[in-house]
Amino acid sequence: MNEKKQIKSDSIQQQQQQQQKRIKYLNSNFKDVEKNKLLVHIIAGGGSKLTESLVMFPLDTIKTRLQFQGDFSRGSIKNRYSGIIHAFKTTIRSEGILSLYRGYIPHTLYVLPASAISFVCYEAIVKEAKKSKKFKNMMFDTSGIKAVKETGVVKKVEDHGSGSRFGILLPIFVMTMARIAGSVLRTPFDVVKMRQQVSGSLVNEQVKKTNSTAFNSALKIIKTDGVKGLFKYSYVSLLRDLPFTAIYFSTYELSRNYQKYLINRGGALKSGEKKKKLSSINNLISGSLAGAIGTTLTIPIDVIKTNLQTQDLLPKEKRVFNGVISAFKYIIKNEGFKGLTKGLTTRLLHVIPSAGISFCAYEYIKKLLL
User: Fold this and answer.
1) What beta strand segments (E) does the chain contain?
2) What is the pLDDT of residues 202-246, one digit of tens each?
3) Residue 213 region by backbone torsions, left for phi larger than 0, else alpha for psi between -120 and 50, else beta
4) Are 314 and 72 contacting, i.e. CB atoms less than 8 angstroms apart?
5) For 174, phi and psi rounded to 5 degrees?
6) Which of 120, 189, 333, 350 could pair covalently with 110 via S-S, beta carbons 3.0-4.6 A apart?
7) Alpha carbons 348 and 354: distance in angstroms, whole number
8) Which sign, positive or negative, has the C-alpha torsion 94, 98, 102, 107?
9) What predicted TM-score, i.e. pTM, was given to this entire model?
């Protein structure tokens, strides 16, 4: 009798050991998969932005020049542009086609890592949003994976508790913090980029020469205002970037989900019929819509940001802005509310295809690597 009990006890111990091995293997395998996915999201995020910026950067240059020309800059710039086409023609004719890519290097140095981080956070938020309804939070809940004793089968345990809610809040918090830090760190690159973009249109040859390269431009700022000059009006970047990011990614995800609903006829599929997946065109549409809405709602602060961060290129008597409120009042007084939408058409022409290409390239690169 004792011998039978001993055999049964040994058998239970062996089963427990096998279950622990399965759990350890599953945990190890899960971590490897997550690491690979993280790397894929980083590569896809950076690669998508590189693809988009190579194609669309000239429109960003034209947008910046259109926003820079205002009542305050009158007499300091060579040409006043009547529109996008005129700006393109005039710039290419007087400065050459490569002038449209002036400021591209500092722009790229920032946007590639920033885009990679944004997409990693976006994936984490989407992942946790889905898990909060159906699955246990594997990323932030430390309770691990439990084995089902009766069958010995290892499975994830569903959880609708506080761990799951915390799971979706953490990546949102991380993205917010990353965006705050990113907006501040982005400011030097943005300031140098915009100075290079508009310098070619200036009357003052000395200022043009000083801002002919990113290095010269940065050096001039440091000599004049110190390192803090590179971070001038960084809070304005934050006022634009935080709402834009929230609108941008939420609109993209909502659009994708709605398109999934439509192509699968609201879930009313026939027996055995597989769910259809979104195509590159669907991702292009969602990305373009996200870019359009985000841009339209944040264009006033973008105009103010451009004017604040480029006014140092003008003579001292023409530097009329000392902050967001003063810029806002001055533009409305001298140009009307229309002045706060300067460059909107150009920015939409830039951002709509840019966002579409960026998200489309991101999903495609991710699909290739996963």
Assistant:
1) none
2) 878 888 888 888 889 999 999 999 999 999 899 999 999 899 988
3) beta
4) yes
5) -65, -45
6) 189
7) 9
8) positive
9) 0.70
